[in-house]
Design goal:
- With 157 residues, the chain is mainly alpha-helical.
- It contains seven helices and no strands.
- Among the domains are: 50 residues; 53 residues, no CATH class.
Amino acid sequence: MRPKGTVKELQRRRQRAIALLNDGGGIRQVARIVGSSGSSVVRWRDAHKKGGAKALEPKPTPGRPKKLSDKKRQKLDRLLDKGPTAFGYKTNLWTLQRIAAVICKKFRVCYHPSQVWRILRQMGYSCQKPERRRNEERIAIWRKSDWPRIKKSSKKG
């Protein structure tokens, strides 16, 4: 199971464990303080002895690199703030399809809408749609034009 925390937090935890060991702390005591297992502390200690502080640095993350870099994601964030109407859409409501189209057009990276949703969640967005509101003007028009016609047809039948 992967430990909790960001890459930087985990690195600081390893460095703190080594500092505590250097100050004379025992394996179990250090493990309890940094919130880790004793075997991890021993592994960090041995790695530090062999490779120094460099051995405690995080390893590169395995897997395919992101198509949309962090810098491009920041730019996407600014583009989304402009709203869909800035990109020629009639309504001011973002959909996954619209965002996918903007990403494809602006960054030349095409995603399926489900992947766009994953990216947006990673960026801190959530699904929000404004509630429908009652349109009093349209209701008044409907009452004057459609309702009398409906009322007449129901009396005939």
